[in-house]
Amino acid sequence: MAGATQELRQAPPQPGTTGAAPAQERLPRLALIGNPNSGKTSLFNQLTGLNQKVGNFPGVTVDRKTGVAQLGGERRAEVIDLPGTYSLYPKSLDEQVIADLLYNPSSPDYPDFVVVTVDASNLRRSLLLFSQLADLGLPAILALNMTDVAAERGITIDLPTLERELGVPVVPMNARKGVGMAALRIVMAERLAAPPALRFWQPDATVQALVNEVRAHFGLHNDYLALHYAHQFQHLHFLTETDREFLARLTEKFAFDATARQAEETVGRYARINELLLDTVTVTRTERREPASNRIDKVLTHRVFGYLIFLSVLFLLFQAIFAWAQYPMDLIDRGISALSAVIQANFHGPLVRLLTEGVIAGLGGVLIFIPQIALLFAFLAVLEETGYMARVTFLMDKLMRPFGLSGKSVVPLISGLACAVPAIMGARTIESWKDRMLTIFVTPLMSCSARIPVYTVLVALVVPDEAWLGVFNMRGLVLMGLYLLGLSSALISAFILKKVLKARERSYFIMEFPVYRWPRWKNVGLTIVEKVKAFIFQAGKVIIAISVLLWVLASYGPGNRQDQAEAQVKQAAITQRWPGSELERRVASARLETSYAGTFGHVIEPAIRPLGFDWKIGIALLTSFAAREVFVGTMSTIYSVGQDADLGTVQQKLAAEKDLQGQPFFTPVRALSLLVFYVFAMQCMSTLAVTYRETKSWRWPLGQLVYMTGLAYAASLLVWQVFA
Amino acid sequence: MAIFRRKSASAAQQPLSAGRRTANDLKMGETATVCCLKDPQMALKLLEMGCIPGTQVRLTGRAPLGDPLMLMLGDEEYTLSLRVSEALTIQLKD
């Protein structure tokens, strides 16, 4: 803790590089901190624009957003965006990051000063966090945001008095519109931030002895920091085991009641803030009328209209993800095929197929998700920005709780109907660890859009296109049944997992209802860019790697069995007089059968026979792991053998397949067994990759893989054994 | 819907609040003053969110199933959403 005593007023000297030129000097570092909904994100986006980087705080899954801001007078600064919080006492993993950063002056991210965003229309509550930061002795600038909202509500703030009372520069602004940005940049460039000379709150005399001991032991520069060590030592990552034991003994010796002390502190701070506000804030309200937000809420959370509107929003969301996203997806698909074709036409050699069928196909598998991810996050960002998301949570909470989920699980679950990958990323808004893990775990059970090709092919194969009771289309009913099966299994699984998981933290629902506002399109755009980048660079790497692996498995076989099989087919071709295209299909099919993947199909056949599957389906199950829709392509390749070249569609090929008795192979029960398998099975490496990324542990993706595959196996077994 | 609501409100409230009304007992649109916060852990969260003893609270809405509810705090036109179980820890002055 050598750095702890350093003088905070000056930027710490940078000893790092030897004889560094001034240009290489480390940029001053500032941290943005503020309440949720205080406009912190808008401010961060205004300061850094596209110049942002998203990483992780060491050891946790919390996003670490940094960027470089251009300040006044050609100066620049590194900006780090801290998670929104109401106080310095963390309630969630997100907020823990703040404590780890601000209480550890030797942290690589330790800021030179902080910019505190404060909601001018909610000054009392916002100043609580500021007063804590001030007592830590951190140099601060106060960005007094949402001055427009405050003005609308008749709140007048005496800025010079406020500045004097707080002892730090106060910059009035409207970050959403960019008002006040120039002034803020100048203040930041001048480094006018000073550690506030004022103390807002002093610990009780009874605690002082404890504080003194902590301070002396760690060499801390500040009483309040020492007090926080006593409060939070169990969760501060940078403390060593001995440090913690020391603090544990100390707090016991002084009989330190953390909860009571914290409540006392908060009440004390509010008392001080109230005094301060008496001098600085006047509220003139002409008439006491219902705020607009409350009037909108009367409709949007109405017991009938509330749900109807929510359903319409969902409908629009699905429309976007299924219909609108289709165009760019087709374009990407065609682009990738064209690229492969060009390469195959112009280059030859052993690596060309690896490049086109392995790497580029894998890349296509990543890129194809981008339109859906972008659209989904555009929608979610708009819902979040407008404040509607909080209302959805409010409407759905009671319905979700019996299953161990919360209102905040609704959006990820629904997004899961499009694609589990962005849905799992969207579960980040859930603060409670247990709720979030439950949501992530069960989301892949929702039938995603990649299952649609499988569903449609198989349903069309065995279900007649007839009306049931003269009204309902049979195929539509079966399809709906599959979706409901997915939904109910997700809810039931959550219910079971709830019993298994021990909650480590208390779950709160208390949250602020933000007022309705128009979305800031810049924020929406930056969210999309950020999410797409995160997907490509983090999940994408794994997807491409596994695609290449699967390609190798499907293209190469043990020994020279593939060549032998090909020779046999060619031999037969001479006697049978197959046309060129027929021969090609038969060769491809024979090579696939004798490849490692084909061998795998034969090996697992005994295991999947009780489900009614043969080795051909076994191959499709393996290749589906790259992405479920690959099922269709694989089936198409395998079932090409010995059929009329005109038999174009997969469906026709499957219908023509005969079993040993010469009966159609795909009976309704066999198709149902396969369908049920696809409803439950975890056959998506993208989902596993993103679950790993979001949970930072292989336990969860492995759990999903084992649980869902087991569930799929059991369900298919049941179907086949009971009905066949 | 109305039956549901009355049931959840009265059934849950009885064993917890000894005499004093809680934020869950407020009628729609009714305003009252916070007297004290019962659950020490929950109190920390409520305090940070601005729900301090002496603050005025007004019930501005309930979800269709009666839970969660919306409380508007003080004169700052600031709305909290919280579950019935959480509202039960907020006791009101008579």
What would the keywords be for this entry?
heterodimer; A: 724 residues; alpha/beta; Rossmann fold; 7-stranded mixed beta sheet; two-stranded antiparallel sheet; 7% strand; B: 94 residues; alpha+beta; SH3 type barrels; globular; disordered N terminus
What can you tell me about this protein's structure?
The complex is a heterodimer of chains A (about 725) and B (about 90). In chain A, the strands form three sheets. A seven-stranded mixed sheet of chain A has the order 2-3-4-1-5-6-8, with helices on both faces. Chain A has a two-stranded antiparallel ribbon with strand order 7-9. Chain A is built from 31 helices and twelve strands. Mean pLDDT of chain A is about 80; it is low at about 1-25 and about 640-645. In chain A, a hairpin with a 6-residue loop joins strand 2 (about 50-55) and strand 3 (about 65-70). The N and C termini of chain A lie far apart (about 70 Å). In chain A, helix 14 packs antiparallel against helix 22 (about 520-555), helix 15 packs antiparallel against helix 22 (about 520-555) and helix 19 runs antiparallel to helix 21. Among the domains of chain A are: about 1-190, Rossmann fold, CATH 3.40.50.300; about 205-285, no CATH class; about 540-724, no CATH class. Chain A is of the alpha/beta class and about 725 residues long. Helices cover about 60% and strands about 5% of the residues of chain A. By secondary structure, chain B is an alpha+beta fold. Chain B has one domain (about 1-90): Ferrous iron transport protein A (FeoA) (SH3 type barrels, Roll), CATH 2.30.30. In chain B, about 25% of the residues lie in helices and about 30% in strands. Chain B has three helices and five strands. Chain B has a five-stranded antiparallel sheet. Chain B is globular, with a radius of gyration of 12 Å. Chain B starts with a helix and ends with a strand. The model of chain B is unreliable at about 1-15 (pLDDT under 50). The interface between A and B is large, with 45 and 35 residues. Strand 12 (about 510-515) of chain A pairs antiparallel with strand 4 of chain B, so a sheet runs across the interface.
